[in-house]
Amino acid sequence: MSPEWTDNRFARDHELSQLHEALTGPSDVDSNDASDTGSDDGATALVSALNASMLTPTVQRYVTELLRGGESPTPAVRHKLVEAANRGLRNRRSNHAALPALLAFKRQEANMPVAELANALQVSAEEIYEMESGRLNARHIDAGRIAGWVRTVQADPAAAISALQRVLELSSTARSPQAAGRRRTGQLSDADQRLVNEVAALLGHEQP
Amino acid sequence: MDDEDLIQAAREGKEHAGPFLVSLYAPMLLGYARGLASDLGDSGCEQICEWAVERAVRRIDLYDPAKGDFAGWARSMLRYAALDYRRDNARLQNDVSLDIAEPDPQPSREIPSDITAALAEAVGQLSEPDQAILALREIEQLPSQTVAALLGISDAAVRQRHSRARKRLTQIAQNDERLTSFLTGGHA
């Protein structure tokens, strides 16, 4: 964050260069008038509501350019930041995944061993593996157990309901031959919809 | 790959988006962290950058290009991360029981949309240097010493410009009924 570096950058942009000069020029500097800003409650209330969209595009660009450089991360820090980004991406994928992938992701995120989850749900570890791998059909698990599973791994109820709908839709056998190969419409059979509603009710999540 | 493609790839959870985002924005975030929270030291700054990157990717659906560029949005994620870090540290150091409510260091007040619009009009009447100093000190929340180092002027000059910009904004606001009502707490 050195001023020499920023000045070089502004030299390539006339508007930003002019703004920088106006902001830093000696004519406006009076070091005897560096008054404290903390006592003006009215101004404090106003500035706390400021956001970048209120600024002119030139000012937005100026701030971005001024803060762009920073410092290059060391390889170790870069590695940690990439890992952090990847955690964010995995989280996003899990939120758009079918239920088995979501539950597996949330268990791993909570650092919960399979045995601990199996114990909490009173099922075998094999059943956990079967569910997380997608080999166990979600229709063969009752609503209470699905809701308990969601709560135990602390998955977001809304994400879990969406994920349950997705897995039921993906494994639907009720689709007509005419629908084969077409884009899925989100229609569930009555039995599947009942299961979704029951799980939603148990999780206290109103279905739209 | 431009920013728009990259943000779309991150929204879709595509793996290649992570390293690209870090390459583009990590230097800015690290430098910003050191300016915003130099008291946290190297490890603290790196930690809040990690949290900011993860949070920015997780919540990328909330990013709205109409409200500013992605870099500015990523910096706002870092400010939240810095607050979280300070809260966590304060809890550890003070051994505060978790069931005791902790005052928010920056109490948030819901700003009605008409007030936001009136404030935007008021800001629009400020000169660009005034807007810039308010952006650096109030929106980016950078300490005056950091802004001084960035601009290459004295700390006193930064505080003077900042003070003047706030006064000008207040003067403009006093001519707007919506803002005066808001300031006196009379806004419904």
Layout of SSEs?
The complex is a heterodimer of chains A (208) and B (188).
Chain A: H1 3-10, H2 14-24, H3 41-47, H4 57-68, H5 75-95, H6 99-109, H7 114-121, H8 125-133, H9 143-152, H10 157-170, H11 190-202
Helix pairs in contact in A: 2-4, 5-6, 6-10, 7-8, 9-11, 10-11
Chain B: H1 3-11, H2 17-36, H3 41-58, H4 70-94, H5 113-124, H6 128-139, H7 144-151, H8 155-173, H9 177-183
Helix pairs in contact in B: 1-2, 2-3, 2-4, 3-4, 6-8, 7-8
Measured by residues with Cβ under 8 Å of the partner chain's Cβ, the largest interface is: A-B, 66 and 83 residues
Low-confidence stretches of chain A: 29-38, 177-183
Q: What is the element string of chain A, with H for helices and E for strands?
A: HHHHHHHHHHH
- Sheet with most strands of chain B: none
Poorly predicted ranges of chain B: 98-107
Percent in strands of chain B: under 5%
Principal-axis shape of chain B equals: globular
Main beta sheet strand tally, sense and closure of chain A: none
Topology of chain B as a string of helices (H) and strands (E):
HHHHHHHHH
Q: What separation lies between the terminal Cα atoms of chain B?
A: 47 Å
Helix-strand makeup class of chain A:
mainly alpha
The helix content of chain A is 55-70%
Distance between the termini of chain A: 50 Å
DSSP strand count of chain A: 0
Overall pLDDT of chain A, averaged? Answer: 81
Oligomer: heterodimer
Round the mean pLDDT of chain B to the nearest integer and report it. Answer: 86
